[in-house]
Amino acid sequence: MYKIFFLAVSIALGTTACVQKTQKRVVVVTVSLQQVEKAAKVGIRGGGNPLTWENDWELTPTITDSVFTGSFVANTAYNSYEVKFTLNGEMELNNKPNRVITFATKGDTTFYNAIFNKP
């Protein structure tokens, strides 16, 4: 009798597990380079599709060698995203916590502004 009860409870809990709904999140990032010479390539890396920690998502210069922008779209159930910027393939903030981009609560677009290598 207890086995049947335990099995029924297990099935009920397993089929009603809480699963968060994914949402389309558009993220627009702008990074300013201060006291940096020769920015050949600036990018962003992160934990989760479409970003990875292994490859740069390349940003576009809006002011040559000074300000770079880019955007990406993520389908996620999370409220935030961890990232780090890269300069010429090298990640910023060595031995420091990742940046956290918290998604906008209204609308699907989040704007994030940062200064390279300054948390």
Give a brief description.
This protein has 119 residues and is mainly beta. Helices cover 12% and strands 44% of the residues.
What can you see in these coordinates?
It is a single chain. This protein has 119 residues and is mainly beta. It has a single domain (20-115), classed as Immunoglobulin-like (Sandwich). Helices cover 12% and strands 44% of the residues. It has one helix and nine strands, in the order αβββββββββ. The protein has one helix at residues 2-15, and strands at residues 23-32, 42-46, 57-58, 60-63, 67-76, 80-87, 90-91, 99-102, 109-115. The strands form two sheets. Strands 2, 3, 6, 7 and 8 form a five-stranded antiparallel sheet that branches. Strands 4-5-1-9 form a four-stranded mixed sheet, with no helix packed on it. A hairpin with a 3-residue loop joins β4 and β5. The chain is globular. Residues 5-10 have low confidence and may be disordered.
